[in-house]
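User: I've been trying to design a sequence by hand for this structure and keep getting stuck. Would you show me what you'd pick, starting by listing the structure so we're on the same page?

Assistant: Good idea, let's start from the same input. This is the structure you sent:
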């Protein structure tokens, strides 16, 4: 199955023919295709412009998904309010800021440009349960030493019960072989030039992609102690400074069951002939004027957000940091075949520019010049991260 985001469910309808002793490779293509509208809609208690994504089911051979454009999208509540959405790139964004509030029923409405109409069941906001803390500590997982990041929260009313988590991590990257002088090719000839300081320090960022769910029903109390992220102590992303933004959603029973089923389907491999393949995973949306199919879920849930930072030395004082993203062992790249030491010949005229490499330069640049090569990310962090400092970033 294509590795699309979980909510963009791929609907595949392909007859499976199993032949004993068949060794010929057969290109899988879609023999029959149904156009299913797929909805990703989270309405939360955050005061903001809410967002909804509408996409179309994909064929097996499709490389990406298509958005459902030109639709009329709006949310109503049982007090008579209507919140309209306008199309913005690949999503629909509410025209005004609003938030879900307790004890009000909300309903999503979608009218496509080809005349199909859909609506969700009325949904109410779940219990508002703030996170108490996000804590990083040394842990061991599967015999691997590292950093465990845990979410802690507690609902004394025991009405939250069903949780979903997301995170976005950001980390500082410092090029270990950055120097103020670098070598560049100029019309096929090498030339030394000043190196930009903008290539020394960068910031990488990744978002969680898997569905992370928790059910506290079997616990004595509605208390969360959830390992949301484990990072090996050999992972370069914690070498300097690391930050994680965690979101905790309190889900309804219906939403939790939907996400849990979706998670199990993905975990099974989502293969065409899998006995657990459910086909069309139904949520709380339905067609109101035809037999058109719709998948996805209109999720009205409370959310709590927390950001935390730590430095490597905070958790591992006095220890050597993890190895860098790539091997930064310097080597001589010259016309001499035996890698002379010292490496006084950076290159020779007429040779091709070494793609993916950057010069590591040492010496006084006048009398003694030793020139070595390393992989590009070792001297230029922009090869693997952004040199734009995030607006939220706080240093020590």
């Amino acid at each position: 199955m294509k590795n699309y985001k979980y909510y963009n469910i791929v609907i595949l309808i392909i007859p499976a023919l199993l032949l004993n002793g068949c060794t010929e490779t057969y290109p899988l293509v879609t023999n029959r295709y149904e156009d299913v509208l797929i909805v990703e809609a989270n309405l939360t208690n955050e005061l903001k412009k809410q967002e909804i994504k509408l996409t179309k089911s994909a064929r097996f051979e499709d490389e990406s998904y298509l958005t459902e454009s030109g639709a009329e999208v709006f949310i109503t509540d049982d007090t008579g309010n209507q919140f309209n959405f306008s199309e913005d790139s690949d999503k629909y964004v509410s025209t005004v800021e609003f938030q879900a509030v307790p004890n009000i029923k909300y309903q999503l409405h979608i009218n496509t440009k080809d005349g199909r109409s859909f609506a969700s069941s009325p949904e109410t906001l779940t219990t508002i349960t703030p996170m108490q803390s996000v804590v990083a500590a040394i842990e061991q997982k599967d015999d691997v030493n590292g950093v465990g990041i845990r979410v802690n929260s507690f609902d004394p009313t025991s009405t939250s019960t069903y949780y979903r988590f997301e995170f976005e991590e950001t980390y500082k990257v410092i090029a270990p072989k950055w120097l103020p002088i670098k070598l560049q090719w100029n019309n096929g000839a090498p030339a030394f030039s000043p190196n930009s300081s903008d290539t020394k320090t960068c910031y990488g960022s990744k978002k969680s992609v898997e569905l992370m769910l928790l059910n506290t029903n079997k616990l004595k109390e509605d208390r969360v102690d959830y390992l949301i992220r484990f990072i090996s102590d050999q992972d370069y992303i914690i070498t300097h400074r690391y930050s994680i933004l965690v979101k905790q959603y309190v889900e309804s029973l219906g939403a939790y069951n939907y996400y849990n089923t979706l998670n199990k389907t993905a975990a099974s491999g989502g293969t065409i002939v899998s006995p657990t393949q459910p086909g069309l995973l139904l949520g709380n949306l339905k067609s109101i004027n035809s037999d058109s199919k719709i998948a996805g879920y209109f999720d009205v849930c409370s959310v709590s957000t927390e950001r935390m930072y730590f430095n490597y030395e905070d958790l591992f004082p006095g220890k050597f940091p993890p190895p860098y993203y790539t091997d930064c062992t310097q080597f001589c790249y010259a016309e001499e075949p035996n890698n002379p030491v010292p490496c006084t010949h950076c290159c020779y005229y007429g040779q091709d520019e070494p793609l993916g490499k950057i010069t590591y330069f040492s010496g006084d640049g006048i009398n003694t010049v030793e020139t070595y090569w390393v992989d590009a990310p070792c001297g230029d962090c922009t090869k693997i991260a952004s040199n734009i400092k995030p607006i939220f970033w706080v240093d020590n």
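That's my pick for every position. To get oriented when you compare it with your attempt: Residues 253-267 form the longest helix (15 residues). The mean pLDDT is 84.
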